[in-house]
Protein backbone atom coordinates (compact mmCIF):
# COMPACT_ATOMS: atom_id res chain seq x y z
CA UNK A 1 0.00 0.00 0.00
CA UNK A 2 1.48 3.37 -1.00
CA UNK A 3 1.77 6.51 1.09
CA UNK A 4 -1.30 8.09 -0.52
CA UNK A 5 -3.52 5.26 0.68
CA UNK A 6 -2.02 5.39 4.18
CA UNK A 7 -2.61 9.14 4.32
CA UNK A 8 -6.21 8.67 3.20
CA UNK A 9 -6.94 6.22 6.01
CA UNK A 10 -5.26 8.42 8.62
CA UNK A 11 -7.03 11.52 7.36
CA UNK A 12 -10.45 9.84 7.43
CA UNK A 13 -9.95 8.78 11.05
CA UNK A 14 -8.89 12.29 12.08
CA UNK A 15 -11.84 13.82 10.25
CA UNK A 16 -14.25 11.53 12.07
CA UNK A 17 -12.86 12.52 15.45
CA UNK A 18 -13.52 16.17 14.65
CA UNK A 19 -16.79 16.07 12.72
CA UNK A 20 -18.35 12.67 13.32
CA UNK A 21 -18.06 11.83 9.61
CA UNK A 22 -16.19 8.91 8.10
CA UNK A 23 -16.15 6.81 4.94
CA UNK A 24 -16.08 3.03 5.09
CA UNK A 25 -15.96 0.22 2.59
CA UNK A 26 -19.17 -1.84 2.69
CA UNK A 27 -18.95 -5.57 3.47
CA UNK A 28 -19.98 -7.73 0.54
CA UNK A 29 -23.11 -9.88 0.51
CA UNK A 30 -21.19 -12.87 1.81
CA UNK A 31 -20.55 -10.98 5.04
CA UNK A 32 -16.78 -10.53 4.74
CA UNK A 33 -15.35 -8.82 7.83
CA UNK A 34 -13.89 -5.64 6.31
CA UNK A 35 -14.75 -3.42 9.28
CA UNK A 36 -14.98 -3.76 13.04
CA UNK A 37 -17.02 -2.08 15.74
CA UNK A 38 -16.72 1.68 15.94
CA UNK A 39 -14.59 3.21 18.66
CA UNK A 40 -16.11 6.08 20.65
CA UNK A 41 -13.55 8.89 20.83
CA UNK A 42 -13.62 12.43 22.22
CA UNK A 43 -14.11 15.17 19.65
CA UNK A 44 -10.95 17.17 18.96
CA UNK A 45 -12.41 20.59 18.15
CA UNK A 46 -15.57 22.45 19.17
CA UNK A 47 -16.87 25.82 17.97
CA UNK A 48 -19.43 27.92 19.85
CA UNK A 49 -21.07 31.25 19.04
CA UNK A 50 -22.55 33.70 21.57
CA UNK A 51 -24.94 36.42 20.30
CA UNK A 52 -24.70 40.11 21.18
CA UNK A 53 -26.10 40.13 24.73
CA UNK A 54 -28.11 43.35 24.87
CA UNK A 55 -28.76 46.80 23.43
CA UNK A 56 -29.47 48.22 26.91
CA UNK A 57 -26.97 50.45 28.69
CA UNK A 58 -28.29 48.91 31.92
CA UNK A 59 -27.22 45.37 30.97
CA UNK A 60 -24.64 43.37 32.93
CA UNK A 61 -23.51 40.16 31.22
CA UNK A 62 -21.50 37.23 32.51
CA UNK A 63 -19.97 34.40 30.48
CA UNK A 64 -19.23 31.02 32.04
CA UNK A 65 -17.16 28.31 30.33
CA UNK A 66 -16.84 24.69 31.37
CA UNK A 67 -15.46 21.46 29.89
CA UNK A 68 -16.26 18.19 31.67
CA UNK A 69 -13.32 15.87 32.34
CA UNK A 70 -13.43 13.31 29.52
CA UNK A 71 -11.57 10.01 29.34
CA UNK A 72 -9.35 9.50 26.32
CA UNK A 73 -8.22 13.09 25.83
CA UNK A 74 -4.55 13.96 25.73
CA UNK A 75 -2.74 16.54 27.78
CA UNK A 76 -2.72 19.23 25.11
CA UNK A 77 -5.37 21.68 24.06
CA UNK A 78 -6.57 25.24 24.34
CA UNK A 79 -9.71 27.32 24.12
CA UNK A 80 -10.78 30.94 23.96
CA UNK A 81 -13.83 33.13 23.52
CA UNK A 82 -13.22 36.41 21.74
CA UNK A 83 -15.22 39.17 20.01
CA UNK A 84 -16.38 38.28 16.51
CA UNK A 85 -15.53 41.82 15.39
CA UNK A 86 -11.92 41.32 16.45
CA UNK A 87 -11.38 38.30 14.21
CA UNK A 88 -9.37 38.81 11.01
CA UNK A 89 -11.62 38.56 7.99
CA UNK A 90 -9.10 36.91 5.70
CA UNK A 91 -7.99 34.11 7.99
CA UNK A 92 -4.35 35.12 7.53
CA UNK A 93 -3.92 37.29 10.60
CA UNK A 94 -4.42 40.57 8.75
CA UNK A 95 -7.03 43.20 9.46
CA UNK A 96 -7.89 44.54 12.89
CA UNK A 97 -5.64 43.20 15.60
CA UNK A 98 -7.40 40.87 18.02
CA UNK A 99 -7.61 42.04 21.59
CA UNK A 100 -7.38 39.92 24.72
CA UNK A 101 -10.03 37.12 24.74
CA UNK A 102 -13.08 37.70 26.91
CA UNK A 103 -12.58 34.27 28.40
CA UNK A 104 -9.90 31.55 28.27
CA UNK A 105 -10.59 28.08 29.76
CA UNK A 106 -7.87 26.99 32.17
CA UNK A 107 -8.56 23.38 33.18
CA UNK A 108 -11.27 20.80 32.36
CA UNK A 109 -13.52 20.25 35.37
CA UNK A 110 -13.35 23.85 36.60
CA UNK A 111 -15.54 26.73 35.35
CA UNK A 112 -14.05 30.01 34.16
CA UNK A 113 -16.00 33.27 34.10
CA UNK A 114 -15.81 36.62 32.33
CA UNK A 115 -18.07 39.66 32.26
CA UNK A 116 -19.01 42.80 30.38
CA UNK A 117 -21.54 45.60 30.71
CA UNK A 118 -23.50 48.06 28.61
CA UNK A 119 -25.29 47.85 25.29
CA UNK A 120 -22.36 47.69 22.88
CA UNK A 121 -20.89 44.29 23.79
CA UNK A 122 -20.22 42.28 20.61
CA UNK A 123 -21.06 38.72 19.68
CA UNK A 124 -18.38 36.20 20.59
CA UNK A 125 -16.73 33.39 18.66
CA UNK A 126 -15.30 30.50 20.65
CA UNK A 127 -13.03 27.60 19.75
CA UNK A 128 -11.83 24.77 21.98
CA UNK A 129 -9.31 22.11 20.94
CA UNK A 130 -7.83 18.96 22.41
CA UNK A 131 -8.78 18.25 26.02
CA UNK A 132 -10.97 21.38 26.18
CA UNK A 133 -13.19 20.38 23.23
CA UNK A 134 -15.38 17.43 24.39
CA UNK A 135 -18.58 18.76 25.92
CA UNK A 136 -17.42 22.39 25.99
CA UNK A 137 -20.32 24.51 27.29
CA UNK A 138 -20.59 28.30 27.47
CA UNK A 139 -23.51 30.23 28.97
CA UNK A 140 -24.27 33.92 28.38
CA UNK A 141 -26.36 35.41 31.21
CA UNK A 142 -27.54 39.03 31.20
CA UNK A 143 -29.35 41.06 33.87
CA UNK A 144 -31.23 44.09 32.56
CA UNK A 145 -32.26 46.40 35.39
CA UNK A 146 -35.10 48.27 33.65
CA UNK A 147 -36.75 49.02 30.32
CA UNK A 148 -37.91 46.76 27.51
CA UNK A 149 -36.90 43.17 28.23
CA UNK A 150 -35.93 43.90 31.82
CA UNK A 151 -35.08 40.86 33.91
CA UNK A 152 -32.79 37.86 33.48
CA UNK A 153 -31.85 36.66 30.00
CA UNK A 154 -29.80 33.51 29.40
CA UNK A 155 -28.67 31.50 26.40
CA UNK A 156 -26.30 28.64 25.73
CA UNK A 157 -23.72 29.57 23.12
CA UNK A 158 -24.32 27.20 20.20
CA UNK A 159 -22.47 25.54 17.36
CA UNK A 160 -22.86 27.00 13.85
CA UNK A 161 -25.38 25.27 11.59
CA UNK A 162 -27.40 25.76 8.41
CA UNK A 163 -31.03 25.59 9.57
CA UNK A 164 -32.99 26.72 12.65
CA UNK A 165 -36.67 26.76 13.72
CA UNK A 166 -38.00 29.22 16.32
CA UNK A 167 -41.70 28.78 17.22
CA UNK A 168 -42.74 31.39 19.80
CA UNK A 169 -41.43 34.61 18.24
CA UNK A 170 -43.69 37.63 17.71
CA UNK A 171 -44.21 40.93 15.90
CA UNK A 172 -46.95 42.11 18.29
CA UNK A 173 -46.95 45.79 19.24
CA UNK A 174 -45.50 45.14 22.70
CA UNK A 175 -42.72 42.86 21.44
CA UNK A 176 -39.31 43.64 19.98
CA UNK A 177 -37.89 40.35 18.68
CA UNK A 178 -34.50 40.11 17.02
CA UNK A 179 -32.94 37.20 15.15
CA UNK A 180 -29.22 37.27 15.90
CA UNK A 181 -27.07 35.76 13.12
CA UNK A 182 -23.37 35.19 13.82
CA UNK A 183 -20.90 34.07 11.13
CA UNK A 184 -17.69 32.47 12.47
CA UNK A 185 -16.06 31.78 9.09
CA UNK A 186 -13.72 33.56 6.66
CA UNK A 187 -16.35 33.90 3.93
CA UNK A 188 -19.75 35.60 3.92
CA UNK A 189 -22.91 33.61 4.73
CA UNK A 190 -26.18 34.11 2.83
CA UNK A 191 -29.33 33.60 4.89
CA UNK A 192 -33.10 33.54 4.31
CA UNK A 193 -35.47 34.37 7.19
CA UNK A 194 -39.03 33.09 6.71
CA UNK A 195 -41.95 33.99 8.99
CA UNK A 196 -45.05 31.83 9.48
CA UNK A 197 -48.15 33.09 11.26
CA UNK A 198 -51.61 31.75 12.03
CA UNK A 199 -52.60 31.84 8.35
CA UNK A 200 -49.32 30.62 6.85
CA UNK A 201 -46.25 32.30 5.41
CA UNK A 202 -46.06 36.08 5.78
CA UNK A 203 -45.35 37.91 2.55
CA UNK A 204 -41.94 39.55 2.70
CA UNK A 205 -38.87 39.89 0.52
CA UNK A 206 -36.82 41.75 3.12
CA UNK A 207 -35.69 38.49 4.72
CA UNK A 208 -34.38 36.94 1.52
CA UNK A 209 -30.68 36.71 0.74
CA UNK A 210 -29.37 38.47 3.85
CA UNK A 211 -25.57 38.64 3.87
CA UNK A 212 -23.71 38.10 7.12
CA UNK A 213 -20.12 39.22 6.67
CA UNK A 214 -17.19 37.04 7.81
CA UNK A 215 -16.55 37.08 11.57
CA UNK A 216 -19.50 39.33 12.29
CA UNK A 217 -23.00 39.31 13.77
CA UNK A 218 -26.26 40.81 12.52
CA UNK A 219 -29.31 41.36 14.77
CA UNK A 220 -32.40 41.50 12.53
CA UNK A 221 -35.56 43.07 13.99
CA UNK A 222 -38.50 40.90 12.91
CA UNK A 223 -40.85 43.87 12.53
CA UNK A 224 -38.60 45.20 9.74
CA UNK A 225 -39.30 42.07 7.70
CA UNK A 226 -43.11 42.38 7.65
CA UNK A 227 -45.87 44.92 8.26
CA UNK A 228 -48.10 42.30 9.87
CA UNK A 229 -48.50 42.37 13.64
CA UNK A 230 -48.90 38.78 14.82
CA UNK A 231 -48.83 37.56 18.40
CA UNK A 232 -47.33 34.14 17.60
CA UNK A 233 -44.86 33.42 14.83
CA UNK A 234 -42.52 30.65 13.75
CA UNK A 235 -39.19 31.88 12.40
CA UNK A 236 -37.28 29.69 9.96
CA UNK A 237 -33.62 30.53 9.38
CA UNK A 238 -32.26 28.80 6.30
CA UNK A 239 -28.62 29.29 5.30
CA UNK A 240 -28.07 29.23 1.53
CA UNK A 241 -24.28 29.34 1.76
CA UNK A 242 -21.90 29.16 4.70
CA UNK A 243 -23.10 28.59 8.25
CA UNK A 244 -24.20 30.73 11.18
CA UNK A 245 -25.21 30.62 14.79
CA UNK A 246 -28.78 31.79 15.37
CA UNK A 247 -30.95 32.74 18.37
CA UNK A 248 -34.03 34.92 18.87
CA UNK A 249 -34.00 37.63 21.52
CA UNK A 250 -37.63 38.23 22.56
CA UNK A 251 -38.15 41.51 24.43
CA UNK A 252 -41.53 42.53 25.86
CA UNK A 253 -42.60 45.99 27.07
CA UNK A 254 -44.33 44.58 30.16
CA UNK A 255 -43.37 40.92 30.56
CA UNK A 256 -39.58 41.18 30.52
CA UNK A 257 -37.71 39.08 28.00
CA UNK A 258 -35.37 36.22 27.30
CA UNK A 259 -33.63 34.27 24.58
CA UNK A 260 -35.62 31.80 22.51
CA UNK A 261 -33.27 28.98 21.48
CA UNK A 262 -33.98 26.86 18.41
CA UNK A 263 -36.36 23.93 18.68
CA UNK A 264 -34.99 20.49 17.99
CA UNK A 265 -35.31 19.39 14.36
CA UNK A 266 -38.89 18.67 13.20
CA UNK A 267 -40.02 15.29 14.53
CA UNK A 268 -43.23 13.46 15.40
CA UNK A 269 -42.88 13.43 19.21
CA UNK A 270 -41.50 16.25 21.33
CA UNK A 271 -40.49 16.87 24.94
CA UNK A 272 -40.40 20.37 26.47
CA UNK A 273 -38.83 19.95 29.92
CA UNK A 274 -38.61 22.05 33.05
CA UNK A 275 -41.75 24.20 33.41
CA UNK A 276 -41.36 26.08 36.73
CA UNK A 277 -43.81 24.90 39.38
CA UNK A 278 -44.92 28.49 40.06
CA UNK A 279 -45.59 29.41 36.42
CA UNK A 280 -48.63 31.68 36.20
CA UNK A 281 -49.12 31.32 32.43
CA UNK A 282 -47.87 28.80 29.86
CA UNK A 283 -48.37 29.16 26.10
CA UNK A 284 -47.62 26.35 23.65
CA UNK A 285 -46.62 27.38 20.11
CA UNK A 286 -46.27 24.67 17.44
CA UNK A 287 -45.62 24.50 13.70
CA UNK A 288 -45.37 21.75 11.11
CA UNK A 289 -43.25 22.56 8.04
CA UNK A 290 -44.60 19.75 5.87
CA UNK A 291 -47.71 19.42 3.69
CA UNK A 292 -49.73 17.40 6.22
CA UNK A 293 -51.61 18.56 9.31
CA UNK A 294 -50.44 17.23 12.66
CA UNK A 295 -52.67 15.98 15.47
CA UNK A 296 -50.93 15.71 18.80
CA UNK A 297 -51.74 14.37 22.25
CA UNK A 298 -50.83 16.93 24.92
CA UNK A 299 -49.68 15.51 28.25
CA UNK A 300 -48.12 17.09 31.32
CA UNK A 301 -45.43 15.00 32.98
CA UNK A 302 -45.67 15.71 36.73
CA UNK A 303 -43.95 14.17 39.80
CA UNK A 304 -46.79 11.64 40.02
CA UNK A 305 -47.01 10.75 36.31
CA UNK A 306 -48.67 11.94 33.12
CA UNK A 307 -51.70 14.24 33.34
CA UNK A 308 -54.04 15.30 30.55
CA UNK A 309 -54.63 19.08 30.71
CA UNK A 310 -58.38 19.74 30.99
CA UNK A 311 -59.70 21.26 27.76
CA UNK A 312 -56.38 20.80 25.96
CA UNK A 313 -56.20 17.05 25.50
CA UNK A 314 -55.12 17.35 21.85
CA UNK A 315 -53.67 19.97 19.52
CA UNK A 316 -54.39 20.27 15.80
CA UNK A 317 -51.56 21.95 13.85
CA UNK A 318 -52.39 22.95 10.28
CA UNK A 319 -49.64 22.46 7.72
CA UNK A 320 -47.53 25.59 7.25
CA UNK A 321 -49.41 27.55 9.93
CA UNK A 322 -48.38 28.51 13.45
CA UNK A 323 -50.74 27.25 16.15
CA UNK A 324 -50.78 28.61 19.71
CA UNK A 325 -52.78 27.59 22.77
CA UNK A 326 -52.76 29.12 26.25
CA UNK A 327 -52.50 26.43 28.93
CA UNK A 328 -52.83 28.78 31.93
CA UNK A 329 -51.18 27.86 35.24
CA UNK A 330 -50.58 24.37 33.94
CA UNK A 331 -48.27 22.99 36.64
CA UNK A 332 -50.34 24.09 39.66
CA UNK A 333 -47.45 24.14 42.09
CA UNK A 334 -45.60 21.02 40.89
CA UNK A 335 -42.66 20.42 38.62
CA UNK A 336 -43.75 19.71 35.07
CA UNK A 337 -42.79 19.04 31.47
CA UNK A 338 -44.90 18.93 28.33
CA UNK A 339 -44.92 15.80 26.16
CA UNK A 340 -46.37 15.90 22.63
CA UNK A 341 -47.05 12.65 20.77
CA UNK A 342 -49.00 11.85 17.59
CA UNK A 343 -52.62 10.80 17.99
CA UNK A 344 -52.28 8.64 14.87
CA UNK A 345 -50.02 9.46 11.94
CA UNK A 346 -46.62 10.90 12.89
CA UNK A 347 -46.00 14.32 11.29
CA UNK A 348 -42.78 16.33 11.93
CA UNK A 349 -43.41 19.29 14.25
CA UNK A 350 -41.40 21.99 16.04
CA UNK A 351 -42.62 23.59 19.27
CA UNK A 352 -41.76 25.89 22.16
CA UNK A 353 -43.32 27.18 25.38
CA UNK A 354 -43.55 30.77 26.57
CA UNK A 355 -43.58 30.69 30.38
CA UNK A 356 -44.59 33.62 32.60
CA UNK A 357 -43.96 33.96 36.34
CA UNK A 358 -45.23 36.66 38.68
CA UNK A 359 -48.26 38.94 38.52
CA UNK A 360 -49.09 42.47 37.46
CA UNK A 361 -46.07 44.71 36.91
CA UNK A 362 -43.73 42.03 38.30
CA UNK A 363 -44.19 39.46 35.55
CA UNK A 364 -41.20 37.91 33.79
CA UNK A 365 -40.89 35.63 30.75
CA UNK A 366 -38.73 32.70 29.65
CA UNK A 367 -38.93 30.15 26.83
CA UNK A 368 -38.57 26.36 26.64
CA UNK A 369 -37.98 24.92 23.15
CA UNK A 370 -38.52 21.25 22.37
CA UNK A 371 -35.16 19.59 22.84
CA UNK A 372 -33.11 16.44 22.29
CA UNK A 373 -32.57 13.95 25.15
CA UNK A 374 -29.53 14.21 27.39
CA UNK A 375 -28.08 11.18 25.60
CA UNK A 376 -24.62 10.39 26.94
CA UNK A 377 -23.99 13.63 28.83
CA UNK A 378 -25.15 17.23 29.10
CA UNK A 379 -24.02 20.22 31.15
CA UNK A 380 -25.55 23.42 32.53
CA UNK A 381 -23.19 26.16 33.75
CA UNK A 382 -23.43 29.38 35.79
CA UNK A 383 -25.19 27.67 38.71
CA UNK A 384 -25.46 28.88 42.30
CA UNK A 385 -26.74 27.02 45.35
CA UNK A 386 -29.80 29.27 45.83
CA UNK A 387 -30.66 30.37 42.30
CA UNK A 388 -30.63 27.12 40.28
CA UNK A 389 -33.25 24.41 39.74
CA UNK A 390 -32.50 21.21 37.83
CA UNK A 391 -35.46 19.38 36.27
CA UNK A 392 -35.19 15.77 35.02
CA UNK A 393 -37.82 13.99 32.90
CA UNK A 394 -38.20 10.30 32.02
CA UNK A 395 -41.06 10.41 29.47
CA UNK A 396 -41.06 6.66 28.78
CA UNK A 397 -39.17 4.19 30.95
CA UNK A 398 -37.75 4.86 34.39
CA UNK A 399 -34.13 6.02 34.41
CA UNK A 400 -31.18 6.25 36.77
CA UNK A 401 -29.15 9.46 36.42
CA UNK A 402 -25.88 10.72 37.87
CA UNK A 403 -25.57 14.47 38.44
CA UNK A 404 -22.17 15.99 39.19
CA UNK A 405 -21.57 19.46 40.59
CA UNK A 406 -18.16 20.62 39.43
CA UNK A 407 -15.63 22.52 41.47
CA UNK A 408 -16.57 26.17 41.84
CA UNK A 409 -15.03 28.88 39.67
CA UNK A 410 -13.24 30.11 42.81
CA UNK A 411 -12.42 26.78 44.46
CA UNK A 412 -13.89 23.60 45.95
CA UNK A 413 -14.18 19.99 44.85
CA UNK A 414 -16.74 18.13 42.72
CA UNK A 415 -19.66 16.20 44.28
CA UNK A 416 -21.95 13.63 42.59
CA UNK A 417 -25.41 12.25 43.41
CA UNK A 418 -27.50 9.55 41.74
CA UNK A 419 -31.25 9.81 41.17
CA UNK A 420 -33.97 7.44 39.98
CA UNK A 421 -36.67 9.12 37.89
CA UNK A 422 -39.90 7.12 37.66
CA UNK A 423 -41.44 6.39 34.26
CA UNK A 424 -43.52 9.26 32.90
CA UNK A 425 -42.52 11.70 35.64
CA UNK A 426 -40.70 15.02 36.04
CA UNK A 427 -38.70 15.83 39.15
CA UNK A 428 -36.98 18.97 40.37
CA UNK A 429 -34.07 17.17 42.02
CA UNK A 430 -32.08 18.35 45.00
CA UNK A 431 -28.95 18.84 42.92
CA UNK A 432 -25.52 18.58 44.56
CA UNK A 433 -23.27 21.56 45.22
CA UNK A 434 -19.47 21.50 45.26
CA UNK A 435 -17.74 20.76 48.54
CA UNK A 436 -16.21 23.99 49.84
CA UNK A 437 -17.08 25.60 46.54
CA UNK A 438 -16.99 29.31 45.82
CA UNK A 439 -18.29 31.11 42.77
CA UNK A 440 -20.44 29.48 40.10
CA UNK A 441 -20.34 25.80 39.20
CA UNK A 442 -21.45 23.39 36.47
CA UNK A 443 -24.02 20.59 36.71
CA UNK A 444 -23.29 17.62 34.47
CA UNK A 445 -26.07 15.08 33.85
CA UNK A 446 -25.19 11.51 32.81
CA UNK A 447 -27.88 8.80 32.42
CA UNK A 448 -26.71 5.46 33.84
CA UNK A 449 -29.54 3.10 32.90
CA UNK A 450 -33.16 2.99 31.80
CA UNK A 451 -34.95 5.03 29.16
CA UNK A 452 -34.19 8.42 27.61
CA UNK A 453 -33.85 11.40 29.96
CA UNK A 454 -34.58 15.05 29.17
CA UNK A 455 -33.41 17.93 31.33
CA UNK A 456 -33.64 21.68 31.87
CA UNK A 457 -32.10 24.13 34.30
CA UNK A 458 -33.73 27.32 35.63
CA UNK A 459 -31.72 30.29 36.91
CA UNK A 460 -33.46 32.90 39.06
CA UNK A 461 -32.38 36.30 40.37
CA UNK A 462 -34.39 39.15 41.91
CA UNK A 463 -33.82 42.67 40.59
CA UNK A 464 -35.92 45.67 41.65
CA UNK A 465 -38.55 43.43 43.26
CA UNK A 466 -39.01 41.40 40.05
CA UNK A 467 -37.96 37.75 40.14
CA UNK A 468 -36.16 37.32 36.86
CA UNK A 469 -35.60 33.83 35.51
CA UNK A 470 -34.25 32.03 32.48
CA UNK A 471 -34.45 28.38 31.39
CA UNK A 472 -31.92 26.37 29.37
CA UNK A 473 -32.56 22.85 28.09
CA UNK A 474 -29.77 20.25 28.31
CA UNK A 475 -29.40 18.24 25.09
CA UNK A 476 -26.53 15.81 24.55
CA UNK A 477 -23.22 17.71 24.39
CA UNK A 478 -21.95 15.62 21.44
CA UNK A 479 -18.59 15.42 23.14
CA UNK A 480 -17.79 12.03 21.64
CA UNK A 481 -18.05 10.54 18.17
CA UNK A 482 -18.08 6.98 16.87
CA UNK A 483 -15.05 6.41 14.66
CA UNK A 484 -15.25 3.14 12.70
CA UNK A 485 -12.13 1.01 12.71
CA UNK A 486 -11.65 0.22 9.02
CA UNK A 487 -9.56 -2.53 7.44
CA UNK A 488 -7.48 -2.00 4.35
CA UNK A 489 -9.39 -2.18 1.05
CA UNK A 490 -6.80 -2.67 -1.69
CA UNK A 491 -9.50 -2.57 -4.36
CA UNK A 492 -9.33 1.25 -4.25
CA UNK A 493 -5.94 0.98 -5.94
CA UNK A 494 -7.55 -0.70 -8.95
CA UNK A 495 -10.09 2.07 -9.63
**Which class do the helix and strand fractions yield?**
mainly beta
Helical coverage, percent range: under 10%
Oligomerization category of the chains in this entry: single chain
Q: Biggest β-sheet, characterized? A: 5 strands, antiparallel
Report strand %: over 45%
Number of strands: 35
Shape, principal axes of CA atoms: globular
Helical element count? 1
As residue ranges, the low-confidence spans are 1-35, 86-97
Calculate the mean pLDDT score and round it. Answer: 89
Please, could you describe this protein's structure?
- 3% of the residues lie in helices and 48% in strands.
- It is built from 1 helix and 35 strands.
- Strands 9, 11, 12, 13 and 15 form a 5-stranded antiparallel β-sheet that branches. Strands 18, 20, 21, 22 and 24 form a 5-stranded antiparallel β-sheet that branches. Strands 5-3-7-8 form a 4-stranded antiparallel β-sheet, with no helix packed on it.
- The two termini are 14 Å apart.
